[in-house]
Design goal:
12 strands; alpha/beta; Heat Shock Protein 90; 47% helix; Helix Hairpins; 3 domains
Length: 359
Amino acid sequence: MDKQPCILVVDDEPDNFDVIETLLFREGYDLNYAANGQRAIERLKIIQPDVILLDVMMPDLDGIEVCKRIKSNSQWQHIPIIMVTALTAKEDLVRCMSAGADDFISKPVNGLELRARVNSMLRIKQQHDKLQTLLQLREDMVKMVLHDMRNPLTSILLATEILQLPDFPIHKQQNKIDQIIASVQHLQSLIDDLLLMAKLESGKMMLNFGEIDLNQLCLSVLNNFAAIASQKHIQLISHLFPLDLYINLDALIFRRVIDNLLSNAIKFSPKNSQVILRTDNLGAEGVIVQITDSGSGVSENLKQVIFEKYEVGTLMPEVSQLGLGLAFCKMVVEAHGGKINVENNQPKGAVFTVFLPKV
């Protein structure tokens, strides 16, 4: 449930607050009152209003000085201030705006005008809050990307330093070279996912559709992951539709969807378990690709958000979890007109299902 917008009314006359409360009664706002400028400053240390209705003519600390103090504080300067004033001279209104006020309304206050101006300021505040959330998300994303890139870069650096040792055995060099190649491929995959997601979000990604045998595409991905699965003693099993399964899609882009889903399934499955890749033909409706693992599964509350960017499921130690893989899968699948979802596997694990329509 959305939080009620909070309005702080600052006026030395309680009757004026009663008027504003009456005019805004049906709007569902959380109204707070401060009887003078100093009290308003103190209230701001306790509450974070979305809009301030500030009377100009107050004793001791007038509204213009209060406005200046609020706007000079980095914690409060984003809060829209509507000056409530009986002054009508242009010079007085200019003083209000110069102090940092975002809007003003004249006394006696008209209910229709008051509601319109408050709603206008609330829209501005909401836009500010959304922007701050986006900036915070971007900052978190940069930190996560750097964290995920640090591991392969460290692996490359260490392997390179070891190869430079004069007494390092020749018969072990290939192993270090393979380690470097795998780390570079990991970095390339991270970068490619970020770039492709940016293009898909901007609408600049042009998919290269073609008739593709989905079974052959899945088998190719399974073969690429065979060695990785073997290292974890995980058995890769395919249950593919017995006939050719041709469908119109961008093979290179959609292959990355299967790559990501299969990689996650192997990553989160315990040793000596199974990962199953299945395809099926739904006739005129379309086809499905389904990957089943034996991992920790996905909780009910995460099923709704796990396909969003930077959301991760169960946190696992020493496991790269940037939270882009499933978001990327969702964007690609939807760009193909399809859907992706996750359900629980019984007795343990998760089942990711991709549905693609026949077009």
